[in-house]
Amino acid sequence: MVAAGWPGVDPEWSREIDVVSTSAADVPGTVRRWHVLDNEPQLSRRGMAPAGTLLCVHGNPTWSFLWRTLLAAGTDAAGSGAAGSGAARPWRVVAVDQLDMGFSERTGTFRRLADRINDLGDLTTALDLDGPVITVGHDWGGVISLGWALAHPRQLAGVVLTNTAVHQPAGSPVPPALRLALHPAVHRWGTTTSDAFLRVTHALAHPPLAADVRSAFMAPYRGADRRAGVGNFVADIPADPSHPSFPALTRVAEGLRGLDVPALMLWGPRDPIFSDRYLKDLIGRLPHAKVHRFEGAGHLVAEDRDIAAPIFEWLAGLSPDSEPDLQRADVLPGSPSPADNASEGTALGNTALDTTALEGSRGTHQADAGVPTLWAPLIRQATGDCGGDTAVAEMGANGGVSRSLTWRELEHNIGVLAAGLRDAGVRHGSRVSLMVPPGVDLTVVLYACLRLGAVVVVADAGLGTRGLSRAVKGATPDFLIGIDKALAAASVLGWPGRRISVRDLPAARRRLLHVETSLTALTRHGSSLSQVPPSDVPAPYAAPGQDAPAAVLFTSGSTGPAKGVVYTHRQLAAMRDTLAATPGIRPGARLVAGFAPFALLGPALGAVSVTPAMDVTAPRTLTATALADAAAAIDATVVFASPAALRNVLATKDGLSPAGHEALGRVELLLSAGAPVPEPLLAQVQKLLPQASLHTPYGMTEALPVTDISLEEIRVAEADAARGTMAGAGNGVCVGRPVHGASVAVIPLAADGSAPGNHPATEAGVTGEILVSAPHVKDAYDRLWLTQSESVRTAGWHRTGDVGHFDAAGRLWVEGRLAHLVTAPGSVVTPVGAEQAIEQLDDVGLAAVVGVGPAGTQAVVAVVETVPPVRRAGPAAPQLAGRVREAARQAGVAVAAVLTVPSQPTDIRHNAKIDRTRLSRWASKVLAGGRPGRP
Fold first, then answer.
1. Angstrom distances, CA of residue 493 to CA of 268, 480, 487, 504
2. Mean pLDDT score, 528-533
3. Strands 31-38, 822-824: pairing kind
4. pLDDT tens digits, residue range 335-392?
């Protein structure tokens, strides 16, 4: 049966089997011939006993060929055990061709969903398939495999799903591609008469399918007489409740809510058919599932990515003789089912009142004994002597305060908005995307959502349009609250969530943007609820538990697509407490936040907060005057600004007035993070803020802060490195010692630049991947089970992906990112030490050291941003190249080539993290003789 043109398929797997049909589509006693790919004969011949069976069901218009990598991995006992199983056990894999599909019989009947579920049961009966069985499904094969799973609980041990759906969300139309395929004028021609439906499906692969793979997928469907099943499958899509297959689909969808077996979902988000909204629905039905979204992959995720390795890794974790699974649930615990939320078609503000405003909730500031909630300091400030003092302020373009709230006003506004949001359908576990600039509105809505137990999704414009869109779609918020510009983007880019504007909009604009209400209207409504007589008001809403999810924050995307990071209420409170204990930000402090997240933490610290007049998505827009105006407005004691912001502050300091100098002179503490901060830059800043203690905490979105160091300590560390008398001092950026409550260690690097071990080390001079353990480390990566599993591979630690070492004084020195190491012949080069040496040259701004060529034989290339900027990127002038090579040689690195650029490609959020991966690709092209262009 197997043709030579089926790449990756062992001919021994292919077999046919006659099956007696009990489906309603057939006359009783009818026998149907099935084709399957089954590795059982191969396992039997080799004397290998399988751990269980994977029952793999394809969708439309693919066939069992889709699952060839699982068949190969299941047969390879060593491969299936490599993920951690105590005993290497193979798995039987049965990949079916559904009737009228693949190389199974063309029946000449129209088979409904219920028939196909029953057909699969007939086949497994004929195969005498017993447990444990893991079902694996894709596309409509996902529904059919789940239907079989629900009908065979005794055999079922787990389910795996890839890009499928079991329910059409309320108010959402069938995807356009399917609507077109269902249209009477197109359906027969597009699905049966021609092979258009197949070709369009195959074109959804990213990257494109190889010619031999595409040919294999087409093989069973050559000729219109072979494609009747393709057309019938499309026609059987239950697009509305009147469809004959709708009851069968509903039984499967509702049955999932009681399915408590292990589940794994592997998803390609770049799918025009089964988008993330269907994944969200499945998560609501199977909230315990492990979920991994392969960013960039699409509908044919099994072709786009290696799904065999994660499936067998997951199976190894299910094995009774494997090590305990260290992965915490990456799907947020307590996520509401669709029935728990107002339906997407319900208008906001029309639901029944079932809660009170915040005044009745003040007694719930301490959800868990001994663990103050994130907003406990805010309430203390509001109810204390300073309740009438300013809590949060916004700066206007004229240099003055344009808007502010006192602590009491802030507390009141949070309460009434929380009541309005609750009445509009925001519940525990609801995801709420906030697209509001830092200031009064964002502060109020953020804390209102947190008090309701909603999960705030914070994906800032610093990710860029593509990165922001990817992040929002992946998080699938239930609600999207934004300014007009954000709502317009949501309409154009198709972001999910019921839309709420900040201000009231004209009716026409509201309809155009599909906005249901506004924060202003919800605040008015919340205020009216507080006037309801006490006898008519239910008990206060319960405070969320400390281990309930609180926020999804996104990484900067400087080393790949931005990742969602889940924090619980306990972890956010621990972050607050660490910031209070380490740099000493206490209640009553006055904070100028040139970095948006710190403005949001101000109320949690009991600190007055103000954001200077700047574009918060572009730190380089912060001027000295804007910083001084903000400091003067609240008599600031603390300033937080990124290195890029500080550079522009210094570049514009000549415009400062005497009053501005005086305001900055009263600042007591400056924090700068997001990228390495050179000592010369801090020295210049110190002159501008003469009374301030300058600190550069090290951390990441997943754990902030991790270590801390002051300017004075930096100078001591650099002096130790210059003397060369202290073990480990030098070759990197010294970021100090662990902060309060944190532990730091490294996993030593191997000769190939990886960090494969699991034994933490703290000895001086040992370079490795940096690990951190602390109460404020993230809970999980959102819907990135594989990424999360790797990050917690070393028990009790978060693996940061950064590389560094300790010195004999216990200080941590950061040398770069694991992904940016250069694997030169005979050595692994960490980039930061050489980059720092090169940046000491007078005519060099930012420098990046990258590798060019195959791993293990890479050439070291230095890419430098010149001062003043060169007009065109390309090879460096001989004199500059010589000085760069000598500077790097002094740092112990031999540079093979030097290239110059007008400016380095940096991340949008910090304007400081250089995209070394992008530079490496560019350098490879230039050194191969290509036109330089811009990196």
1. 18, 13, 10, 22
2. 69
3. unpaired
4. 333 333 333 333 333 322 232 233 333 333 344 556 789 999 999 999 999 999 999 9
Helix (H) or strand (E) holding 518: strand 515-518
Distance between CA atoms of 530 and 532, rounded to whole angstroms?
6
Question: CA 860, CA 852: separation in Å to the nearest integer?
Answer: 7
Residue showing tokens 């065999």 = 308
Residues in CB range of 787: below 8 A, 6 or more apart: 292, 563, 781
SS3 426: coil
The answer to whether the beta carbons of residues 266 and 142 sit under 8 Å apart is no
Tell me 506's DSSP state. -
Chain CA centroid to CA 885, Å: 39
* Peptide bond connecting 61 to the previous residue in cis, omega within 30 degrees of 0: yes
The CA distances from residue 754 to 87, 747, 749, 767, in Å, are: 26, 10, 6, 11
Of 71, 17, 77, nearest to 49 by C-alpha is 77
Residue 931, classed as helix, strand or coil, is coil
- Token pair of 769 as six digits: 């991947």
Single out the residue of 445, 391, 443 nearest to residue 419, CA to CA: 445
Whole-angstrom distance, CA of residue 402 vs CA of residue 550: 30
| Cβ contacts of 578 within 8 Å, gap of 6 or more | 705, 739, 740, 741, 742, 774, 775, 776
Residue type, 911: N
Q: Would you call the peptide bond into 41 cis, given omega within 30 degrees of 0 as the criterion?
A: no
The angle formed by the CA atoms of residues 245, 249 and 251, to the nearest 5 degrees, is: 120
Q: List Cβ neighbours of 360 (8 Å cut-off, separation of 6 or more).
A: 537, 539, 540
CA angle 864, 869, 870 (to 5 degrees): 80
- Phi and psi of 321, rounded to 5°? -105, 10
Q: Of 173-182, 337-346, 441-450, give the lowest mean pLDDT range.
A: 337-346
Decide: helix, strand or coil at residue 680.
Answer: helix
**Any idea how long the chain is?**
935
**Closest by CA position to 239, among listed 286, 288, 292, 178:** 178
3-state secondary structure of 333: coil
Tokens representing residue 124 in the block: 């497994």
**Rounded distance, CA 357 to CA 481, Å?**
20
The Cα–Cα gap between 186 and 521 comes to: 46
What is the distance between the alpha carbons of residues 925 and 919, in angstroms, rounded to a whole number? 10
What angle separates helix 596-605 from helix 376-383, to the nearest 10 degrees?
A: 60
Strand runs (DSSP E) across 604-738, as ranges?
608-611, 638-640, 669-671, 693-695, 698-700, 703-708, 733-738
Check residue 539 and report its DSSP letter. P
- Tell me how far apart the alpha carbons of residues 929 and 849 are, in angstroms, rounded to a whole number: 20
Flag whether pLDDT at 209 surpasses 50: yes
Residue type, 912: A
pLDDT, greater one: 558 or 836? 836
Contact 530, 747 (CB under 8 A): no
Backbone angles phi and psi of 663, in degrees to 5: -65, -45
pLDDT band at 319 (very low <50, low <70, confident <90, very high): low
**pLDDT tens, residue by residue, 381-427:** 999 999 999 999 999 989 999 999 999 999 999 999 999 999 999 99
Quick one: pLDDT at residue 370?
64
Q: Are strands 431-435 and 455-458 parallel, antiparallel or unpaired?
A: parallel
> For residues 830 and 890, is the Cβ–Cβ distance under 8 A?
no
CB 412 within 8 A of CB 444: no
Mean predicted lDDT score pLDDT of the chain: 89
Q: What is the DSSP string of 26-56?
A: S-TT-EEEEEEEE-HHHHHHTT---S-EEEE
Give the Cα separation of 391 and 387 in Å (integer). Answer: 9
In angstroms, rounded to a whole number, what is the distance separating the alpha carbons of residues 701 and 697?
13
| Residue whose structure tokens are 């069985």 | 133
Q: How far apart are CA 209 and CA 442, in angstroms?
A: 46
